[in-house]
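HUMAN:
Sorry, I am quite new to this. Are you able to go through these amino acid letters and fold codes? The numbers rather puzzle me.
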Amino acid sequence: MSFTKVLFRYGTWPVLFFGFGGVVVWLASANVGVWPMFAVLAGAVAFSFLAERVIPYQPDWNRTHDDVARDWLHALINTSLNRAALWLLPWLTWTALGGDFWPHTWPFALQVVFAALILDLGIAMAHHASHRFAPLWRFHAVHHSPRRLYGFNGLMKHPVHQAIETGSGVLPLLLLGIPFEVAITLPFLVVIALLCQHSNADYRTGGFKYVFANAEVHRFHHANSADGDVNFGLFTVLYDRLMGTFRYEPDAAPRESRQIGIAGEQPYPVNYWAQLAEPFRPSQ
């Protein structure tokens, strides 16, 4: 293996997760506004796509499966919704939804970590419930419909399900009185975490995969069998450790398109607008 590939194999995840994520936190602490943070996010997307081509986990998943336009629509619309939510955050954080329980005296970075852990648990709970209860699964199924895993899959969510997960994670933070400066980091950190989770880069994270919910463990979640009801965390595997849903087995993660997606004879719609409508169709 070339030196470049070795660098990408062991450097991709820390650069994405700690590097780009750390810059977002630093920019928020400096109160520079959201546009520089969007520039960092664009850089993270570009770096993620580069890594997928330098060290592909499954080379065929770098090839279009007639899904590029659909995936761009998911990414652009969901990112736009996230951006719209940013403008609601100042109002939400200034309302008296709860007491002033937030640890304002902590260092800014530590406050962000605290917020991310609470968000992580809330989203993981909603995610787990979406695999157990049919009405929620109908909306979550959109995320599991692709037959390849790559960076944009993380943004492939039905807007209704995205709202459910976001509400589950954000409400406890609002009740605690999260400051706007901390809250503003979360949408950007979520997108970076999703890039890490669904990356088609064959990176290695050593012992970090037993703490953080990266691609090495998240690929098991996309198996199209009962074995996929594992690894629900977004940032960490803390929830999965608590609930007994953590799974990692060396070299056992899905590697072929036939191993991921949604099981069953009825093909799931591939068109964007059909995917939005699918959860509302009567059950067969």
Observations:
- The mean pLDDT is 90.
